[in-house]
Design goal:
128 residues, alpha/beta, four-stranded mixed beta sheet, globular
């Protein structure tokens, strides 16, 4: 068994697509119209056949409480692996990304937490 698809709720799929592709560097895998929304998945350019990230519309009433609760507690909605958190922090900060947590050495890993502009905190991490 493998993880094929995971999702992050976004308040605006187009804004999310721009952030996750133009800023974070993911690539669009599927962009299929589905009524007023889209089946919009992204992949890492380093693993185009790997796990897909679905930018899921957050219109459902339960999602608002879920996202607000996670953000209020400082809990990331998802975690992405990077090669070097401090270097990625500097690169993303150069793109105007706001961080809720600057790089933090946690022993076996270094983490940072950013705001994805769509209502989510996103953790980046590398292991030592």
């Amino acid at each position: 068994m493998r993880i094929h698809l995971t999702s992050v709720f976004v308040d605006d799929q187009e804004k999310g697509l721009r952030f996750y592709t133009d800023v974070l560097g993911f690539r669009t895998k599927h962009d299929v119209p589905m009524g007023e929304d889209r089946w919009l998945t992204l992949v890492s350019p380093e693993d185009p056949d790997g796990t897909e990230l679905l930018l899921e519309p957050s219109r459902h009433p339960v999602v608002k409480a879920y996202k607000e609760g996670l953000a209020a507690e400082g809990i990331p909605a998802v975690s992405f692996a990077v090669d070097d958190v401090p270097a990625e922090f500097e690169r993303l900060r150069g793109h105007g990304v706001r961080f809720a947590q600057e790089p933090l050495d946690m022993g076996p890993a270094v983490t940072a937490i950013l705001d994805d502009t769509c209502g989510n905190l996103i953790q980046i991490v590398h292991t030592k």
